[in-house]
Amino acid sequence: MKQHHLRFTLLLLLIGICSNTHSQDSIPAHDSLNLNSVLVGEIRTINVWTPPGYAQSTDAYPVMYMPDGGIKEDFPHIANTMADLINNGSIPPMILVGIENTQRRRDLTGPTEVKKDKKIAPVVGGSEKFRAFISEELFPEINKRYRTTDAKGIIGESVAGLFIVETFFVNPDMFDYYIAMDPSLWWNDHELVRNAEDYLAKMQSSTKRLWFAGSSEKGISKRTKELSAILESEKPAHIIWKYSDEPGEQHSTIYRATKEKALVWMFSGKTD
User: Fold this and answer.
1) What is the reported pTM?
2) Helix H segments across 90-248?
3) pLDDT digits 0-9 by tens, 181-202
4) Sign of torsion, CA 105 111 116 122?
5) What is the CATH code of the structural domain delimited by 2-266?
């Protein structure tokens, strides 16, 4: 009964946490693009924020991508935070690209063999197609429209964090910087954590930076702590990583509570 209750709670979290946008979040100046995707078979809205001074410069910039990147999702508060951190010199200037959701739980989850996982939405398990959309359609479009460097990162929480950790394991060279708050690593009977050692052994990537955090939500923090322990034990030479245990935060608060320190650590050059 206890395990059933935990699974039900986790499913509620996955269903409910799809936007952390508050009514007081100011919407920053940005571009909105409609990208007709062949790979996911629909038109996707893409929101793009450029850093202060972009229009007056000829410089190229790194790009931070984010799922849950709609105007009514997490895009405004992440863009505003990045603007503050850039202005005070805490992080370098970069472009933010937000991918607005259509079917969030379809795009951000991998395949699952767990029946209860499959009940959260009409379609799940579309992460491979979504990843292909980003790499094969979105990357070229952003590089064509904006002055970009080769450096790319991705940030997100909950099921977006699940997608980020999955991408880190299965296609690590897609991004250079990975930030995942409260990733839903319980998905598919915590397959990513169960097989983390195998994924790490197969990784042949260049050096990557990974920052992830776990809240007080037991079903999530158990798995984030397990992943941290595996990384500590394996000590992969090509991964610079940091785990932030956040027992004082809830699943609904951890994104806003940790985004600044995650971004600052990611671009600080620190190794611990």
Assistant:
1) 0.92
2) 104-107, 115-118, 127-132, 139-145, 159-170, 187-194, 196-202, 218-234
3) 999 999 999 999 999 999 999 9
4) positive
5) 3.40.50.1820
Residues 6+ apart with CB under 8 A from 248: 216
Going by C-alpha positions, the residue among 124, 141, 167, 144 that lies closest to residue 45 is: 141
Check if the beta carbon of residue 169 is closer than 8 Å to that of residue 183. no
> pLDDT of 150-177, one tens digit each?
999 999 999 999 999 999 999 999 999 9
Distant-in-sequence, close-in-space partners of 58: CB < 8 Å, separation ≥ 6: 147
Q: Write the DSSP string, 188-227.
A: HHHHHHHTHHHHHHH---S-EEEEEEE-S-HHHHHHHHHH
Residue ranges of domains in the chain: 2-266
φ/ψ of 125, rounded to 5, equals 85, 25
Q: What is the CA radius of gyration of the chain?
A: 18
Residue of 2, 20, 73, 3 lying closest to 251 (CA atoms): 20
